[in-house]
Design goal:
Layout (H helix, E strand, L loop, with lengths): L2 H16 L6 H8 L3 H7 L3 H24 L4 H17 L2 H13 L1 H11 L1 H16 L9 H18 L16 H17 L2 H4 L2
Helix pairs in contact: 1-2, 1-4, 1-6, 2-3, 4-5, 5-9, 5-10, 6-7, 6-9, 8-9, 9-10
């Protein structure tokens, strides 16, 4: 991993654990193992670093979602999108913790970033679900755009606290690790609340 990506990784972890205001540039540099001027060579300020951390996290979907949404069938798109969403946060829960913390601490700034990076895909996915509903594949009462937002919220909030909840959802030899159990059940709940019974059983 190059220095720039190491900086982004450590900044994500520290911002998630301590908050933006509670983390200094020096702490991030120390975590990477470089001097502060070296960090500032890559990112001119802590604000710029924060913007890059969030932009790279959100921009991930600009590269992943187009391919997922081209899947041949509604079910294939759903399964692939849900797996990508849960795996992205499960493989590094600090992403979810930072996303949640920033949404609570800086709602105005996050609204701007969500509008730029996430809203276009929510609208596209909502349009596809609306067409699937017209075909009788999706439950009649589903609000497609609200559904997409709720699934994202469940994935982020659940993953942000999943390690803390390990005491009440422990690793299980038969069912898998806490994180895998959480991800699998999230996908099952999301699927069963979306599709009509005949479609969901396929």
């Amino acid at each position: 991993m190059d220095v720039r990506n190491q900086i982004l990784t450590q900044a994500t972890r520290l911002f998630a654990e301590q908050g933006y205001d509670g983390t200094s540039v020096q702490e991030i540099a120390d975590a990477v193992g470089i001097r502060k001027p070296s960090l500032l060579y890559h990112f001119r300020s802590k604000d710029e670093l924060r913007e890059n951390v969030l932009a790279e996290m959100l921009a991930h979907w600009n590269s992943v979602l187009p391919g997922l949404l081209l899947k041949a069938s509604t079910e294939e798109r759903f399964d692939a999108t849900m797996r990508a969403l849960t795996e992205f946060f499960i493989e590094d829960p600090d992403r979810a913790r930072l996303f949640l913390r920033e949404t609570l601490d800086r709602p105005v700034q996050m609204q701007a970033m969500l509008s730029a990076f996430v809203q276009p895909w929510v609208e596209l996915l909502g349009g596809q679900l609306e067409r699937a509903k017209e075909q009788g594949l999706v439950r009649a009462g589903v609000d497609p755009q609200a559904y997409a937002v709720e699934v994202i919220t469940m994935a982020v909030a659940g993953t942000a606290v999943i390690d803390t909840l390990q005491t009440i959802l422990p690793d299980d030899p038969a069912r898998g690790s806490t994180r895998k159990r959480h991800a699998r059940e999230l996908i099952r709940v999301a699927r069963s609340s979306l599709y009509t019974e005949s479609e969901g059983e396929n």
